[in-house]
Amino acid sequence: MRRQETNRRLRTAGIGMVAGGLVLVLGGIGSFSITHRGVTVRGASMEPTYPVGERLFTERVDADAVRRGDVLLIRVPERYRDAPVLQRVVGTGGDHVVSDGDRVTVNGRPLDEPYRNDTPVGPASEPYDVRVPEGFLFLLGDNRGNSNDSRYFLDEHSGGVAASAVLGRVTEGPPLGIATAGALGVVSILGGAGLWWHAARRRSWTDAYGAPR
């Protein structure tokens, strides 16, 4: 009887751990699917950082959380029809962005751009000197010689893209909390399955050899 009671407790604990693990895993997947979206790079404007065909994830981001250097997924139908486009934030509302046609300064400071691809494809960029309007973002592609970005729309809000056009920000992976919940869920499922299997083995042994006196 004592062995049977132990087996029952092990099975119950195992089932509980599996159920709890499934809740964590499915909850993590659900949260990720609500706050993130997968995109496939279609154009060359962000090469070499994100080559054509690469699969990326973007996360929802509030306008006041956008920072210089962020890579954003935007939708601006009047510029790019209805196709979402990836571009990098160079300036935010109030920033003074200046270029001599090559190097860029923001608020008087040279912009460090180790990600740039300077291989020329189209005509050289013209110099510009703009003040980004509040509520707008000045965006450039990393593939500077092959990117149809803010430089070519200077007559429209100084080239700025409205913050409301942002669909998401490229992220390297799921947030730590979601990743941790998923990992804990998997561990719980495996641990619960192990307990259930151990209880089943003990029960099989008892059925085969009888409970000890």
Spans of at least 5 consecutive residues with low confidence: none
Q: What integer value in Å does the Rg equal? A: 27 Å
Helical/strand content category: alpha+beta
Give the CA-based shape.
elongated
Q: Would you give the CATH topology of the largest domain?
A: Umud Fragment, subunit A
Tell me the distance between the termini.
Answer: 10 Å
How are strands sequenced across the largest beta sheet? 1-2-11-3-4-9-10
Q: Report the CATH C-level class of the largest domain.
A: Mainly Beta
Element-by-element helix/strand order: HEEEHEEEEEEEEH
Count of individual beta strands: 11
**CATH homolog superfamily of the largest domain:** Umud Fragment, subunit A
Main sheet summary? 7 strands, antiparallel
Average pLDDT over all residues: 81
Percentage of residues assigned to helices: 25-40%
CATH architecture of the largest domain: Ribbon
Number of helices: 3
Family: Belongs to the peptidase S26 family.
Main location: membrane
EC number: 3.4.21.89
Subcellular location: Cell membrane; Membrane
